[in-house]
């Protein structure tokens, strides 16, 4: 029997990259998956079609995780389609590298609204949607919260806040049988990081990161998805409040 057989999962920001890999990996483990997206409808549809072609069930749902009305609607669509939730993956996130001189109030609120408020609102609204046996919440943080790279003051701060939220809510939600953990990717090649020119170009920056990574390569979305799937399963039943740095040893 598959380890997530008959489990119901919601993955925010699931239209591409790490989110898409998570949705596909959860489905491969037996879960039915709702893939949420903000703007990339075609990407989300491609993910759900791929899951369905593999013999699993999936739907795509539009919504902005920083908007409570959108979250309520998304959760209603998921539970109407599949029943009570078992797994929530807060993957939706945004970033914009900039030096301190370029920081603006608008950019601060843009990143914190999605990266911090979004997971908080999603978890809050999801609580009535879990079944009597509880479930698993996995937040997708970032290695930036520990590595604190130059030019990422807002993003690193937002992901540090998410680390704290993970640990706090693990204690708050344990009596409900809901585990809360975080997976913090290191340097990971995805559509977003490639289009931003961070990885996949063979740049000096990328080569330096590879040289600093004990496992000797840039990570991939499936690397992260496998860790998330483990945390969603009963195999991780004794884990809550953990912030797992999935970085190939890069610190």
From TrEMBL:
Residues 7-192 form the Ketoreductase domain. Keywords: Oxidoreductase. It is an enzyme of class 1 (oxidoreductase). InterPro entries: KR_dom, NAD(P)-bd_dom_sf, Sc_DH/Rdtase_CS, SDR_fam. Coiled coil: none annotated. GO terms for molecular function: glucose 1-dehydrogenase [NAD(P)+] activity. It holds the Pfam family adh_short_C2. Its EC number is 1.1.1.47. The keyword DNA damage does not apply. NCBIfam families: PRK07231.1. Belongs to the short-chain dehydrogenases/reductases (SDR) family. This is Glucose 1-dehydrogenase. The lineage of its organism: Bacteria, Pseudomonadati, Planctomycetota, Planctomycetia, Pirellulales.
């Amino acid at each position: 029997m598959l380890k997530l057989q008959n489990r119901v999962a919601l993955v925010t920001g699931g239209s591409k990259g790490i989110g898409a890999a998570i949705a596909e990996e959860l489905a491969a483990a037996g879960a039915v998956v709702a893939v949420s997206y903000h703007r990339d409808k075609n990407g989300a549809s491609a993910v759900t079609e791929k899951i369905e072609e593999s013999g699993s069930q999936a739907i795509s749902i539009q919504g902005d995780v920083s908007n409570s009305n959108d979250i309520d609607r998304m959760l209603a669509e998921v539970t109407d389609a599949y029943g009570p939730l078992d797994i929530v993956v807060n993957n939706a996130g945004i970033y914009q590298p900039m030096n301190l001189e370029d920081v603006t109030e608008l950019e601060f609120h843009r990143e914190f609204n999605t990266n911090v408020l979004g997971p908080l609102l999603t978890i809050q609204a999801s609580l009535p949607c879990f079944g009597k046996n509880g479930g698993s919440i996995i937040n997708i943080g970032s290695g930036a919260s520990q590595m604190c790279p130059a030019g990422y003051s807002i993003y690193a701060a937002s992901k540090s806040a998410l680390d704290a939220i993970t640990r706090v809510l693990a204690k708050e939600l344990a009596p409900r049988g809901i585990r809360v953990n975080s997976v913090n990717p290191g340097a990971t090649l995805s559509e977003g990081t490639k289009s931003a020119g961070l990885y996949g170009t063979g740049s000096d920056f990328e080569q330096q990161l590879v040289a600093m990574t004990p496992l000797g390569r840039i990570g991939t979305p499936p690397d992260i998805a496998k860790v998330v799937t483990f945390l969603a399963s009963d195999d991780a039943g004794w884990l809550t409040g953990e912030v797992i740095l999935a970085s190939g040893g890069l610190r």
